[in-house]
Write a structure and sequence with these properties.
homodimer; DNA-binding; about 55% helix
Chain lengths: ~110, ~110
DNA sequence: TTTTAATATAGCAATATTACGATAAAGGTT
DNA sequence: AACCTTTATCGTAATATTGCTATATTAAAA
């Protein structure tokens, strides 16, 4: 197989999984962090920061975009990428909710 | 290929990617949520909640465990699983940091 | 001790992911 | 127009992931 049974889960579960999966690669974490480091958005030079060939970086960017974590605006012959705050908010809120639930539950058994 | 160039990234990037990757599947999100829903830890019956065969669930649990997101304590002939709060904290803190950085940066370009 | 219950592992097949080089596409520049 | 720069796509190969059935393991229960 190798194909996930997506029909069997809730929208929310699939959304969280999709966003998390997009971040689930160090190159994409590095891309996100680079987008954070520079002011506002960044056009070009993402390739120069990563230890990967240009087509590979392009593919990682595409996956981040498909998952909704970044947006890309065409500016002339280059593309301006920036993070989609909503997507990060979704993840942050989700994990904050988990932590809150953990905190109010009895956890003495482990 | 298919193998990630892990040598080229920081410890932090690999940690975040590893944790995020572990959550990057709806079945594992469902497992996490089930562990949250019940009080404290849960022994057994995770298999009954998922639309997957027992060995497949076992494999997902193993991956969550390898990533450090859950712990498993052997209790008799069953295993008591619970979430590792530290791992969730790591993710929550990370995304909160991202959001903070996004908020203080100029984002007028996109 | 035999059986039952719970979980893990082995082995397999299908699909997905990662990565590269080569090439295409599309917009500037000269 | 000819060229350069930037990014995307194609084609390919290697590896990883997902999921199953069958089987092993381990411990409690009968």
């Amino acid at each position: 197989m190798g194909a996930t049974k997506t029909d069997e889960y809730t929208e929310s579960q699939i959304l969280v999984a999709t966003l998390a999966k997009a971040i689930g690669h160090p190159a994409r974490v590095a891309i996100i962090e680079y987008l954070m480091k520079v002011d506002s958005c960044i056009c070009g030079d993402i390739v120069d920061v990563l230890p990967l060939a240009q087509p590979t970086v392009s593919r990682h960017l595409k996956e981040l975009k498909n998952a909704g974590l970044i947006r890309g605006n065409v500016i002339g012959n280059s593309i301006c990428y920036c993070i989609d705050k909503n997507a990060v908010d979704t993840l942050q809120t989700y994990f904050a909710g988990l932590i809150h639930t953990i905190s109010i539950k009895d956890k003495t058994c482990c």
